[in-house]
Specification:
- By secondary structure, the protein is mainly beta.
- About 5% of the residues lie in helices and about 45% in strands.
- The model is unreliable at about 15-35 (pLDDT under 50).
């Protein structure tokens, strides 16, 4: 059965001129497009045309984190979510591999992949390791921070960011999802954990301006 992320990856390949046949690439002026155009995500953020979002460890000018963040470029560079790999309650180190269609975290016994499904949606999937998406600010005040709530309609976790003026809807498409900090105020952890039960999982994160 075809997974939603596979459809997003196929569309991304089409946008950069790749065919669906493994290893095939069309001829272009100046030569064929390489099958893999990898780059260092510390130097070039992973994003897509027309998006205000990116995936990168860079969280501010001359500041590089040990974790990939979902960054917003609305109102300047704003780290929204810190993405941490987790297995059995402990953080797992990973190697980052990025190309034109996907960003991957590679670790012993597990792998996570991310791709854009349009300018406002990021899809992530993993096997053998879970992922925790953590509010980057960590404190909610009257004017700064973020508020996390679980939507009773579809169980999506919705993070409202005062830093960007946007909402980030996190919806589990496969596997398990646990939410920490639902409706909490002040300084506390606000996070979403997928894949804690060891099963394969898929997560969709969509930036919106409304509900």
């Amino acid at each position: 059965m075809r997974e939603p992320l596979d459809d997003a990856l196929a569309e991304r390949r089409a946008l950069v001129g790749w065919s669906n046949a493994a290893g095939a690439a069309p001829d272009r002026p100046g030569g064929p497009l390489p099958r893999t155009c990898s780059f260092d995500v510390r130097e070039i953020p992973f994003s897509t045309r027309g998006s205000w979002l990116s995936l990168s460890p860079v969280t501010a000018l001359h500041t590089t984190s040990a974790h990939i963040h979902l960054d917003s470029h609305v109102n300047g560079l704003r780290p929204v979510l810190r993405l941490e790999l987790e297995r059995a309650g402990s953080e797992v180190e990973a190697r980052w591999v990025a190309d034109a269609t996907r960003l991957a975290w590679e670790t012993a016994g597990g792998r996570v992949e991310a791709t854009f499904d349009g300018p406002s949606t990021v899809r992530l999937r993993g096997h053998g390791v879970g992922l925790r998406a953590v509010d980057s600010v960590g404190e909610l005040t009257s004017f700064t921070g973020a508020y996390l709530v679980v939507d009773p309609v579809d169980a999506a976790a919705v993070l409202t960011s005062y830093e960007t003026g946007r909402r980030y809807r996190m919806r589990c498409l496969a596997g398990s999802m646990d939410v920490v900090g639902d409706q909490a105020l002040g300084r506390c952890e606000r996070s979403v954990l997928v894949g804690a039960d060891g099963r394969d999982w898929e997560l969709e994160i969509t930036e919106t301006t409304g509900r």
